[in-house]
Design goal:
Elements (H helix, E strand, L loop, with lengths): L13 H14 L70 H4 L10 E8 L2 E11 L17 E3 L10 H7 L10 H4 E7 L5 E6 L15 H4 L5 H8 L102 H4 L21 E4 L3 H5 L4 E4 L6 E4 L5 E3 L1 H10 L3 H4 L11 H14 L8 H15 L1 H8 L4 H6 L30 H10 L6 E4 L6 H14 L7 E6 L7 E6 L2 H10 L3 H13 L4 H8 L7 H6 L15 H12 L17 H6 L7 E2 L5 H19 L12 E8 L3 H14 L1 H5 L9 H4 L3 E3 L4 H14 L3 E8 L19 H6 L2 H5 L3 E7 L17 E3 L4 E2 L2 E2 L5 E4 L1 H9 L7 E3 L1 H13 L5 H21 L14 H16 L7 E5 L3 H17 L7 E5 L9 H11 L19 E5 L13 E5 L10 H8 L4 E4 L109 H4 L36 E2 L11 H5 L5 E4 L1 H8 L18 E3 L13 H11 E3 L21 E5 L6 H19 L1 E5 L25 H6 L42 E5 L16 H4 L10 E10 L4 E10 L6 E3 ...
Parallel strand pairs: 6-8, 7-9, 10-11, 14-15, 14-16, 16-17, 17-32, 18-32, 22-29, 23-25, 23-26, 24-25, 26-29, 39-40, 39-42, 40-41, 45-48, 50-51, 50-52, 52-53
Antiparallel strand pairs: 1-2, 1-4, 2-3, 4-5, 7-12, 11-12, 13-28, 19-20, 21-27, 30-31, 33-34, 35-36, 36-41, 37-38, 42-47, 43-44, 43-48, 45-47, 46-48, 49-54, 53-55, 54-55
Helix pairs in contact: 9-12, 11-12, 11-15, 19-32, 21-34, 23-41, 24-41, 31-32, 32-33, 32-34
Length: about 1950
Amino acid sequence: MGNSYAGQLRTTRFEEVLHNSIEASLRSNTVVPRPVFSQLYLETEQPLAHDGRPENEEDDDEDGSESNSPPIPYQMKPPPEGCCTTDGFCQAGRDLRLGSLASDSLDVPPGFMLVGVKSPSLSDTLLVCAVDRRFLPDERGRNALLGFSGNCMGCGEKGFRYFTEFSNHINLKLSTQPKKQKHLKYHLYRNSQGILVKGAPICWRGHDGRIRQIDSSLQSEGQVTSDEQTPNLTAHQSPTPGSLTGSHVDPVGLPQIADTPHTLTNGSHAVPSITQPPLTQSGPGRGSATGPHANAGPPKKRHKGWSPESSANTQTETTAKTSPSTVSVPVSQINAAKTETAAPLSSAQGPLNPLSPPGLSVTVPDQLLQTCRLQPVIFKGHGPLPQLTGNISEVLISSLLQSCYLSSQTLPRVYQHYGPSPIQPLSTEMQILLTVYYLVQLGPDQVPLIEDLEQIFMRSWRESHLSEIRQYQQPQTPATQGRHYSIETPTALPGFPQHFSLPPQSQQPLTPSQLPWLAQLAATSCGEGVVVLWEQLSSIAQGLQQTFTRLMDGRLQNTNYVVVIVTPPGQETQSCVVVTGKRQCRALAESMYSPNEGLREINHQLSTGLAQELIQYCNSLEQDCDMDSLLDGATVESNEPSPLSSSQESAEEKGLKNTHSPKDSQTEASKDCPKDKASSLKDTCSEYSVQWREVRPIQLAVARKLLSHVCAIADSSTQNLDLGSFDRISFLILVPPSEVTFQQTVLHLWSSGVLQELGSLDLECVSPRETERYVVKMDEHAQARIDKLIQEAHSNSYTLYILVHDHAHWDISSASYCGSDTGLGSVDRLLNSRQVRDAPNILILHVTSFPFALQTQYTRISPYNEIHWPSAFSNDVDLYHERTRYFGVSELLESTRSGSSMPLMRYDSSFESMASALEEKFPKLHSAVIRTTVLVQHYCIALMAASGKISSSHNLHKHTSVETMEIVQSLLSAAQQCPAHHGHMVLLRIPSLALAAWAHRRLSTVRKQLGLEESFEIILGNPSHPLNIGKSFTDQIKIWLKIQDGDWVPHTYLELEALPCILILSGAEPLGESLPRSLKYCDLRVISCSYLQRTTLEQELGLAAYLVRAESRLPHNPGPGSDSLESDAEKLSSTDNEEEEGQENGKRKTESPLSSSQPLQSSTDNGAAEALPAHSTTSVNVQKGSVDTTQPPSQPQTPLQPHVSSHSHLQPQCQIQPLSQTVPQHQSVSQVQIPHPQPQPLPHAQSRCQHSKSASSGSLSPRAYSPHLSCSWARCVSRPPSVLLPHALYDIITASDSSGLPRCTSFLPHISVAWASSFRPLLSKMMTCTEQSLYYRQWTVPRSYHMDSSNRTEGRSDNFHPRRLLLSGPPQVGKTGAYLHFLGILSRMLIRLMEVDIYDEEDINYSGQSEGVQFHPPNAHWPNPDTMRTMPFDYNIHDPKYDDISNVYCSAYKPNIEGNPVRQEDVYLRRRTSRIKLSKYAAYDTYHHCEQCHQYLGFNPRYQMYESTLHAFTFTHLLLGEEIQLYFIIPKSKEHYFSFNKQGGQLESMRLPLTSDWSPDGIKSPIFTPTTGRHEHGLFNLFHAMDGASHLHILVVKEYEMAVYKKYWPNHIMLVLPTVFNGAGIGAAHFLIKELSYHNLELERSRRSEGGSPAVDVWPFIILADDSCVMWNSVDLNARSTPAEHSVSLKQVLQHMEAYPDLAHYGLCGIRKWSSRGFPGNGQREPFSRGHLHDFLLLNVDRSHNVQYDQNRFTCHDVDFTLRLHSAGLLVCRFNSFSVMKKQIAIGGYRTFIIKTKMTDVPTSVGPSQYVCAPDSKHLFLATPAQLLLEKYLQHTSQKLFPLSTRNYTHPVLSVDCYHNLGPEVMVCFVSSRPHSVNISTTGLTFSGLLLCFADSFVTPGFLKKFTFLKGATLCVISADRSSLRQTVSRLELEEEWRFRLSDEFQTANAKEDRPLYFLTGKHI
C-alpha cells in the first residue's frame, strides 16, 4: 500500500534509525542487533491476508494454529498395568500440580525451563514440567525447534523425546492428537517470596502469539509532514489540573509510539516504542520513523535458529487522532476527595497500600518548601512505600496511581474465564513503561491526569487482545448490544496526540531487566522533564532519598517528574513517581481537597490574613504608583472599608450593608452617567417592548410525554398506580436552598395558571406570596413540610400527590453519611423514606439537567420512566413550530473552531500569565485566592481606566487585560446609548462565599470612589440571602416594567432584565438560578479547575445558555468586535426512537433585518472596535446563513425594524445543552460540523398573560437587531453571552475524544459515583439520551455516601421505585414550564378519567300521545300485576338508537306531521352524548385498576393469571334439530357456582338459588353479557357497580375471540358459542343464552327435587345486559318537586326488582334509558309502563320458554322478541324509577357490520341494491351472512319494495309473526298467527303490503283472508330455499289474490355454499 517500493530510500533520518536499532537491541534476547543501514532501505513486502499473515505463508503442522476442521480422532495408548492414572499425577504416582510443587525445591537441568501444562481434565490448575528451551518459542513466537525434549518434575524421569509419550506419562488423557502448542501454556517463575507462580503465556506463533499481525502497509499512509503535525504538537502553556475523582484526559501529545505489528508484549500485550525526536523539532517525541515488513518467520522445517537480520524488528510510526477518555476507579476505591486530604501522611497507609517493610524509612529534609518553592507529591506505585519521617508536612502522598494500576489489572469476570486460556492483564513492567511514556509527552505546564493514563492502559490491553474481545462480542445479539455496551477499541489512544500511537504488536514480553533501559531511553527524549532513577537502587527508599537530595541541591529545577524503578533480582518490580514541577504540585495538592475542604482552606487563608501580602502586592501597580492613592486622587472621596476582615461572616454582612447604602449625589463632572437622573427616567426606549405568549410547543410536548409515562405506569400490570381512583392532585416542588431559585420557582408557578386549574386558590387572590406554600427549599425546615404532605397523603387516599424534585442532582448524599447540621442528605431522608416510598398516592418526579448521578447500577429510577427533552429540529425542520433555537455547549464549542470571528468561548491569556506568575511567587496561597485577587484587580483598574477620572499618563491599560477592559467599557457605555438607560449584566462567578464578599466590597468601594454608583449596580449573589439591590435601581426596573406597587422589589435575577450590573454569583455550585437575557458576559475565569466531573463543568457552562431566534441569521461578514454567532441547525441525526423525539437543539440567533450579503457594521458598545490579541483567543470561522426578514402577519413589514417576539424580563435564562443530552438529543456537542439551518417563517404570535421565560413565559421582545438601534440592550439581547474560562478548562472543553465527542463527556459523571470498571467503552457519538442512560447504568456505581448506594437487591427489577420519574433536559431550556404544564394536564386528565361519555338522547315517538291516565302512584315501589294488565301496551319504539327503523302500528298512533322522518344519510351522524363524572358504583373496562379490584379481576399478588378449566356442556334443542355443544371457561375461584358429577368431574349444571333465598350481599339472577370485539373496552368489571355483592357474571363470547377475552378477563366465566355462530348476530347469542338458561333451569329443578326441595322454587330469572352499561340511577320517589335522579349501585337496582313479590307473573322486566331531560311525557310520572325494553333485561326463562329469540337476527331482535312476547300474553314491565346509562364505545359491538365481497375479502362500497340478485345470475357474491344482507336490503330499499307504504301511516305493511325494519318511512303492523295470541284490532284497517318471513304451519290461508289489502299492495314472501318458497306460495293459496312474475324472484347475494335466502314479491289483484 502507499508509495513504498523496494530499494527506495526512506525519508526517515539516520538518527531515528539509529535510535530504533539501539532500542531493538534492548528489546531483543539476542545480542545481534539489526544492521542500521538495512533499515534505511525498503525490503520487499509480502501482501497480507485479512488475518495479518502473508497470503503465501503456510501453517506448520506443529507451529500452526488450530484449524477450523474437525479434530482428528485420537486413541491414547493404554497405560501400563498397575500405573497411576489419576489426573494431576504422573504414571509413577507423583504429584505434578502447581499448587503442590510451588514451595518445593525443583532440580531444573541447564537449558531447561519450568513450564505449566494445561490438562483438559483440570481446568483450575497447571501441571509442572521442565522443557528444553530450544523447543520453546521466544517472545515473538519464533525460534522454536520442531520436536520436544522434556523431563517429569514429579518422578524425575528424563529424556522424553516425543510430546505424545510425555503426555501419556503425565496422564493428560487427550481425545485429540497431542500437540505441545495446545498444552504447554505458561512459563513458570518464582516470585519475591520464592513461590512458584504462573507467568507469561508461551507465545506460540499462530496461537496466543499470533495476535493481530496488523498490516504495516497501512502505516505508510499514516505518515504526515512536519507542517501537518505542527498544530497537533503545540503544547499548551497553561496547567491542566489533576482530578482526584478521575475525570478528564489531556489531549496534548505523547512521544511517538508506533502502531505496527511488531512490538514487545506482556504475553500478548502491546508495548509502545519510543523514537528519538529529530534534532530540528522543538517538541518532545516528534519523530516519525517507519519501518518495512520483513520476512514473517523462520524457514519451514528448520531445526536451527535463524539470524535476527532476517526477521522484522523495526518500529513503524503512525499518526492517530487524539482519543481522550476518562479513567475508571474501581468500586473498592474510596473517593479520593474523602480519603486524601492536605495532611500529607494521613493517607499514606491507605487500604490500598501494602505495609511498608520494617526498617526502611526516608527522612524528608527541613526547609523543603522554602528552598524548592514547592510541595512534592509522591504517587504510590507498585510495591510498598517506605515510611516518611522528618518534615513530612511538606510532602503529599497520593494513592491515585496505585489505584489506577490495580483497577487496570482487575479484569472483568467475563475475561477472566474467557476461552481455553484466560486473558491476562497488563504486567507491572508494562504499566510502568506506559506511565513513563505518558509523563514524557506532557507539556511543561500540564498536569498529569490519572484518567489519561488509565485509558492508555486500556487501549494497550485492548489492542493486544483484540481478537479475543471481538470473538467474545460476536455472539451478542443487537438487542443485547443495545443495552450492554461491549468493550470497544478506540481508533486512537486516549490522551495521546496525533503523532503518538499505540506500539507495534511484537510477541516478546517485557522483562524486568529491559524495563529500566527502555524507561531511561524514553525519558531522554524530553530532556530533563522526566528523570528515571534506577541504577544501583535496591529499594524505593533509596530512590526517594536521592530525589529529596537532588531537590535540595537544585538539580531538579527543570524536572517535573522523577520515576523511581527498582528491579531486584528474583523479586517483583517496584516503582513510584515523585512530582517535582511547581505547577503540577500545586494543582495536585489543591485537587486533594474535597470541594468543601477547598472552600474552608480559602476561608482560613482569608481570615488569618495570609492573603494580605498578595493584595498589597497587587495594589502596588509595580513601579507606577499605588492603586489606592490613584483612587484617593479621584473626584469622589474614598471610604473603602478594610479589604479583609478577621471574621468573614461579619465582613460579608458589612459588605451587604455598605453595598446598598444611599447613593451620594452625582457630580456634574461625571461623563459616564446622565446628568439629570429624574429627567432621564422619563425617557422611554422604543426598542424595549413586552409581549406575552403561551407555553412553547416543545414544553407542551414534553408535558404530554410526562403524562404518557404516568399513564404507562397506571396501565402496566404491576398495579403500582391507580389513576382511576384519584379525583384531584396536589403537589409540592422541592428546590435547592437558594432564595433566588425559590422565588424564581414561585414566580413561574404563580404565572403558569396551574393553581387556578387545580382549583386550589381563587383566581382573584392568587399571588406569589400565597403560592410559596407549594414550593419548599430543601433545608433544615423542609422536614416539617414533607411530614405534613405525608400525613395528608395518608388521610386523602383519593388525592394524587406529586413531589417534584427540581435540580435533582444537587443533593444526592446519603442521610446516613451526612449530619443534620450540614444540610445535606435531606433529599435522601425525605424522598427515600419508607412513608413516601410505600404511599400508593405519591408520585415523585426528578427534574434535572444532569441526570448522570441518578443513572447508576443501583438507581431507583427505571429506564422506562426517563423522559428526555426532545429535539426541536430534525433536518432543519421545525418539528414543534418553535420560533427559537437552543444555544448550548455545542454552539459555544463551534464558535471556537469555525471561523475568523471572535469565539464566544475563550480564555484570557493576559490574566493567565499574571495569575501564573503570582502563583509561583506565593506558593502557600490557594490558587483561587490568587486568581480572584488578580481578577478583581483587573476589574478595578478597568473601571478606573474607563471612568476617565484617572490620568491617562498612568497607563492603566497595561495592568489589566483586553478582555476585562472590553467588559467594563461595554458595561459603562451601554446605559449611555439608551434613553431609558438599559444595559447589560456581567456575571462574575466566584464559588467561595468569602472571596465573593470581598470582591463585592472591593468593587463597590472602587465604584463609589469613581462616582459610578448610579451607572451600574454590583450585586452579591449569595444563595442563602435574598436578592438585594439599591433603591434607585429598583425604581428604574419598576418604571421599565410599569409596576405600580410601591413595595415591589425584585426577587429573582430574571427581573433584572436590562439592568446594567455586575452579578457576583457565589456558592460551591449554581443552584438553578436563571439569568436574564441581558446577560452579555459570563466571566468564569476563577472557577475551580480541580474537580473535573461532567456535572460540575456543565453546570458552570450552563450559566451561559441562550435561546436565539430560529429566524435570525447573521450576515456573512460581521464587523470587528461582533460577538455574533451562526449556530448549527441539527447536530444530531441519532435520537431516541420515540414520538416527539429529539431535543431542543434550537439556538438563539441574532436578529437582523439585513440581507445576507450586507455586512453587519457592529462594534463594541462604546463604539471602539477592540480586537483581542491573537494569543488570547482562538481563531474561529463562523458560518453564516441568510438573514430571515419574515415577520408575524400582525406586524407591518418594515425592513429595518420587524417587531419580533423575544423573551421577557421574567423569563429564566434558557439553558445550555448538557453534555449528557448533547449526543442523543439537543445539539450534540459532538456534531458541530453539520451545516447551518435555513430560516423558518414566523408562526402567528400567541398571547397569554404568563411570565416566565423557561416556564413558558412572557418574553420581552426587542426590535430586530440592527446596528442603527440606539439601545445597546436591544442590539445584543438576541446574541448569546460571551464566556471567559480558565485556560486549563478551555483546553479540556475544546478537546475531543476519539468518537468526536467533547472530552468532558468522558469524565466521571459526578463526584458521588465511581466507574464500575476500567474496562468500559467510551461514550459513542451516536448514542441517544436513552442509550447514554443505559451506559451510565451499566458502567457507574454510587459511592458509599451516595443516597442510592443502599438500593441493592438480588432482583434488579425490585430496585426501581415504581412511581418515580426522571425528566432531563439542558439547563433552563424550559423544564419548569414543562412540568408545571404537566401538572395542569394531569389534573385535567384525572377529571377526565372520572368522566365518561354517556348517550344523552331524548326519547322519540312521544308526540301526540297524551293519555292523561295515572295507573300507579308516582311513589309506588312495585307495580300491581292486575293494574299492569289493564295498561295498554305501548307499541311505539322510544329508544333513540332506533330512530331509523320502522315504527309499529297501533290504533292510537298519530304521526308527527311537523317533523320529517330521519333520512338515510342522517342515520350515521354522531349521536348526542354528555360527559358525566363516574360515580363510585360505575362499571369499568380493563383499564381500571385499583387495589379493591385485584382479586376480582383475577390477579394475585404476583400478578399471574388465575387458573381456569374448560368444560363442555351439551343439550338438545328441537328448533335447531341437533345437539348444541357449548363450552364454559370456569376459573377455579368460580367453580362453586356450578355442580359437577362426582365420577368424572364433568359439568352438570349451573347452580341456581331458590326463590325463597335472600341475602343482603348477593344477587340471585345470573348476569349474561354477550360481547364481541370489546375485550378491552367492554364494561365487565362490575365489582364497584355491585358494591361488593356476590354475583354470577358470565361473558358470552364467540369462539374465535375466546383467547383474547380470557387474557383480559382471567377471573370471569366465559360461555363460548359454537363455531357455527362465529358469524352470527346478537339474536343468536340471546337465543342460546335463553335456551341454555331454560335447559339449566330444568336440570336444577331435577337436582333440587332429588335433594327434597320443591322443583318450582328454583329462581327462574336471568339478566341480559349490554356490555356498555356503565352506571345506574334511581329517581327519588319521595321528592315532591321535580324528580331528582341519583346514582345507585346495580346491586340496589337488582335487589329491588328481585324483592318484588309478584315478579314471577312477569315474562320480561327492564329499566329505562337515562336522559338528562328525564322521563318524557306530559309531566306525569308513571313509575311503571308496558312497552319495548332494551339493553338491560330481567328475563323469566320459565314463563317465556315458548317464545324464543330469533337466532338469525342481526338487527332489531329485541323489538321482535318483545312484540312476540307480548302477543303470547306475557306481562312486560319497565321500571321507570330506574335508569341505565350507556357509555359511548366506538369499538366493537354487535352493531358493527362489515359488508365485503367474496373476492377481495375487504370492505367495499357495495350499495344496498346489490345485496340481492336474481337466482342463477352471475352476480358479485358477498362474504356476508344472508340474513344480514336481507335485513339491510329491507331497511334501505323498502320504498321500492313497498311503494304504497311510503309515508302511508294509515295503511301499514302487515308483518306476520315477526318484525322487520322496513325503514323509517314505512309503518309495520305486527300480528301473531299463534292461537290465543294478543293482537291489535285490525277491523277496518287496509294494509299496503304483506311480509311473510319463514311462515310456519300456524299461518294458514284462512288466517290471511282476515285482512284486507289495497289494490297494488306488495307481497314479500321469504324462505330458506326456492322449493320451500314455492311450497309456501302454494300452501297459502297466494296466487288467488296476488299476481307473481318470474322476474320477481330474488336471492341474497351469497354463493350457494353460503346458503342464500330467497324471496318472492307480488302485487295484490
